[in-house]
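In this section we walk through a basic example: taking a raw amino acid sequence and producing a predicted 3D structure, encoded as discrete structure tokens. The instruction is simple. Fold the sequence below.
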Amino acid sequence: MQPVTANPVPSPQLVTYTHLIYALHALSLLIGATTAVFIVWAFVAGFPSIIAVIMNYARRADTAGTWLESHFRWQIRTFWFSLLACAFASFLSVPLILTIILAPLVWLAFAAIGVWVTYRVVRGWINLREARPMYR
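The resulting token sequence is shown next.
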């Protein structure tokens, strides 16, 4: 993978804005981890993450040509891919949950998606803190 290289330096306000977006995603993960909701469902259906992805789209053009552009792409893709994975897992869970033997596969699928989302939020936020772009 090639790192994203961009010359313009983003404004400090835009960096803070990006931190806020990661914080909103992390809040959704925390809500999912501390309630009866699956972590991943709290991420894709929780208000903090929905607000965060709207914020991504609202300021996406401002990041063009900067290293923050890769973080916005990373955050947006994390949200939509996790939503797609949840929808697919939910669709598959209907026949699986009807059998006692295969029901644990449903929990395992959602847990795996939750781990993946958590990894993406943590890795992205660490790279942002170190002022490094995300890889494509």
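Looking at the output, two observations stand out. Residues 17 and 85 are 27 Å apart (CA to CA). The chain has a mean pLDDT of 85. In the next section we compare this with other chains.
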